């Protein structure tokens, strides 16, 4: 296990530390795992997250088109609209029940809506697939996955791939390579038509984009509001400048990382960060610990939104496998925190220690009861030039 910042960064960029470990990971669940969990293994093994070298670069280049800066800036209006709808949902829940659940009314639907829009799939469909996505997240989050977790994840993988198989069939009937539009899924279809993706790779990238597109951002939003409302002075300071809100997003990522750690399998004997590693060793790169390294972050246990001149948090990884959707996640959180601070300045927690999800990898909240306070009539437009990505 590596826990210091420079060590973790070294592991994540070292080609001897392989991300292609999904097959062996699933196989250890049980003697019949090779047959019983074929869908789960197929999804994990074919996604770019668990690929190395040229195959990883090929898959990433196809998907990266949807995450270029121009595409993200074009999403600003739709993100703002989704945030306003989330604020409306919070106010409606409080009016009905006397309190709102920030996770249910705001943090869960917002990133699902955004990734659904990027993929070009109906929001209702994507929302209906969240349970399948969560089952895979629970499997990934168990240090020693149980058979029960693997079976639930297998069912989730089957449902996700079946959905994207249907979407691919529909796209094939109604789209040609030259007709344009259609979102990121259409980009994948074009890549398939050009021979850059196999049919199975196309289906799996769609499934994993839906999974990865909301899991981390949901936890970033929940952890962020929990941290800000736990530190009222920091919450008040967000009103002072848009730049401070951008800094707050990165401080949340540092202080309460949505992803706690990631693993690698050593593919040849080597030395990394001064440690001798053997072929076959499992290496844990502890992102959350690295984000509290006092050599990089003075007073690392203090939550402070005006940190400047410090290292970039490793919450989204580092090196060739750095999260492809990191900038989208930051953008969603930046707009969310900005509009929540303007529209609900009196937002407050009801519980000091709300219930967290039971997951070693993904750190987030199961629920976050809040009261909204009196809404402010402040819908000032955020300048497009202030876009933080």
Any key phrases for this structure?
single chain; mainly alpha; Cytochrome p450; 18 helices; 6% strand; 8 strands; 389 residues
Textual characterization of the structure:
With 389 residues, the protein is mostly helical. It has helices spanning 5-13, 22-27, 33-36, 38-46, 53-64, 69-74, 76-97, 102-107, 109-119, 123-128, 130-140, 147-174, 183-193, 199-230, 232-237, 242-255, 287-290, 326-343; strands spanning 17-18, 100-101, 262-266, 270-272, 275-277, 282-285, 348-349, 369-371. The protein has a 3-stranded antiparallel β-sheet, with helices on one face. Strands 2-8-7 form a 3-stranded antiparallel β-sheet. Residues 176-181 have low confidence and may be disordered.
- Bin the helical content: 55-70%
Average the pLDDT over all residues and give the rounded result: 90
Number of domains: 1
In whole angstroms, the N-to-C terminal distance is 31 Å
- Strand order in space, largest sheet: 1-3-6
Give the count of helical stretches.
18
CATH homology-level superfamily: Cytochrome P450
Name the CATH class: Mainly Alpha
Structural class: mainly alpha
Unreliable parts:
176-181
Instruction: Report the C-alpha radius of gyration, rounded.
Output: 21 Å
The CATH topology name reads Cytochrome p450
Strand content: 5-15%
């Amino acid at each position: 296990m590596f826990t210091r910042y420079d060590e973790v960064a070294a592991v994540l960029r070292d080609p001897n530390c392989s991300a292609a470990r999904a097959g062996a990971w699933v196989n250890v669940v049980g003697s019949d795992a090779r047959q019983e969990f074929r869908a789960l293994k197929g999804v994990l093994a074919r996604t770019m997250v668990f690929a190395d070298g040229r195959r990883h670069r090929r898959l990433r280049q196809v998907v990266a088109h949807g995450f270029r800066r121009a595409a993200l800036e074009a999403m600003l209006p739709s993100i703002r609209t989704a945030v306003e709808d989330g604020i409306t949902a919070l106010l409606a829940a409080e009016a009905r029940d006397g309190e709102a659940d920030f996770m249910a009314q705001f943090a869960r639907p917002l990133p699902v809506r955004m990734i659904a829009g990027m993929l070009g799939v109906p929001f209702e469909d994507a929302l209906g697939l969240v349970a399948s996505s969560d089952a895979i997240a629970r499997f990934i989050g168990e240090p020693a996955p149980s058979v029960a977790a693997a079976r639930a994840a297998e069912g989730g993988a089957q449902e996700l791939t079946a959905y994207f198989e249907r979407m691919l069939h529909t796209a094939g009937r109604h789209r040609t390579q030259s007709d344009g539009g259609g979102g990121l899924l259409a980009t994948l279809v074009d890549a398939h038509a050009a021979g850059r993706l196999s049919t199975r790779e196309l289906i799996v990238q769609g499934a994993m984009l839906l999974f990865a597109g909301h899991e981390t951002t949901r936890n970033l939003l929940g952890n962020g509001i929990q941290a800000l409302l736990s530190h009222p002075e920091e919450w008040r300071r967000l009103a002072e400048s848009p730049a401070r809100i951008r800094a707050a997003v990165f401080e949340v990522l540092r202080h309460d990382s949505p992803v706690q750690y990631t693993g690698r399998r050593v593919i040849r004997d080597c030395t990394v960060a001064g440690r001798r590693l053997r072929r076959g060793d499992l290496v844990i790169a502890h992102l959350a610990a690295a984000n509290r390294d006092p050599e990089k972050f003075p007073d690392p246990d203090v939550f402070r939104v005006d940190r400047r001149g410090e290292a970039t948090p490793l919450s989204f990884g580092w090196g060739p496998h750095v999260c492809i959707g990191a900038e989208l996640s930051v953008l969603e959180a930046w707009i969310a925190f900005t509009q929540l601070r303007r529209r609900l300045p009196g937002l407050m927690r009801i519980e000091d220690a709300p219930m967290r999800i039971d997951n070693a990898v993904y750190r987030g909240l199961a629920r976050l009861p809040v009261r909204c306070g009196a809404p402010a009539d402040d819908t000032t437009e955020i300048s497009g030039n202030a876009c933080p990505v």
